[in-house]
Specification:
205 residues, mainly alpha, 8 helices, 0% strand, Serine Threonine Protein Phosphatase 5, Tetratricopeptide repeat
Length: 205
C-alpha cells in the first residue's frame, strides 16, 4: 500500500512544481492534492491498524502522514485562498522530520537508497519553508524546477520498482541516487535561470 501511495505522490509533486512555475492554476491543482492527501492519510491508518502493535510496521507507516497532511493543507489553502505562511512553517517541521526518517532509513532499516530519497524530500520541504514561510521569492523558480525534476525519480520510479519486485537497496544504488540528485539540482539551477516563470501559486510537496 505504501508503494501505491508513493506512486501518486509523484503525480502531485509534478503538478505542484508546475503550479510554482505558474503553469498550473492553484485551484486546478487543488483536487489532486486533496485526493492524494486523503490517500496518504487513509493508507497509514490502515497499515497501523493492521500492524497489531508491531513497532517497526507502525514506524514505517508513520511517515506517510507527513505527505497526507501536506497535500490536504495545499488543497484546502488553494481552494480557500489562504495565505501561504502557515503551510510554509508547517513545511519546516516536516523538513526536520524527513531528516530523522532519512537517518532511520540509513541506520535502522538499512535502506540507504530511501535514506537519500528522504534527504531529497527534506530539501524540498525546506525550500517550501523558505518560499512560502519566509517569502524568499527569488527561490520560487528554483524550487518549482526542483520539485518537477525530483517528482518522478524520488517517488514514481521507486514505487514502480517496489510494486514489481525490482527494488533492491544497496550502497551502490544509494550512491547512484545521490549523484542523480546532485545532477537534478544542477539542472534545476540552470532551468530556473533560463526559462521565465509566470505568476507563482501556493504549492508544496
Amino acid at each position: 500500500m505504501g508503494n501505491v501511495g508513493l506512486l501518486y505522490v509523484g503525480a502531485v509533486l509534478l503538478v505542484n512544481g508546475l503550479m510554482l512555475l505558474g503553469r498550473v492554476p492553484a485551484r486546478a491543482a487543488a483536487p489532486l492534492n486533496l485526493f492524494v492527501g486523503g490517500l496518504q492519510c487513509v493508507t497509514p491508518t490502515v497499515l497501523i491498524i493492521q500492524a497489531g502493535g508491531q513497532q517497526n510496521a507502525i514506524l514505517a507507516a508513520s511517515g506517510l502522514y507527513l505527505f497526507g497532511f501536506t497535500y490536504l493543507y495545499v488543497g484546502i489553502a488553494n481552494l480557500a485562498g489562504l495565505p501561504p505562511e502557515g503551510l510554509g512553517w508547517f513545511s519546516l517541521f516536516v523538513a526536520g522530520a524527513a531528516v530523522v526518517y532519512a537517518g532511520i532509513s540509513f541506520w535502522h532499516d538499512h535502506d540507504p537508497v530511501f535514506g537519500v530519497i528522504w534527504l531529497c524530500w527534506a530539501l524540498l520541504w525546506a525550500l517550501f519553508f523558505l518560499v512560502l514561510g519566509l517569502g524568499v521569492e527569488r527561490l520560487t523558480r528554483f524550487t518549482g524546477w526542483t520539485v518537477v525534476l525530483f517528482s518522478l525519480p524520488t517517488c514514481a520510479v521507486p514505487a514502480f520498482l517496489g510494486l514489481t519486485g525490482g527494488y533492491h537497496p544497496g550502497a551502490g544504488a544509494a550512491l547512484i541516487a545521490a549523484v542523480a540528485a546532485v545532477v537534478l539540482l544542477a539542472a534545476a539551477t540552470l532551468l530556473s535561470k533560463r526559462f521565465p516563470v509566470r505568476e507563482p501559486a501556493v504549492s508544496t510537496t
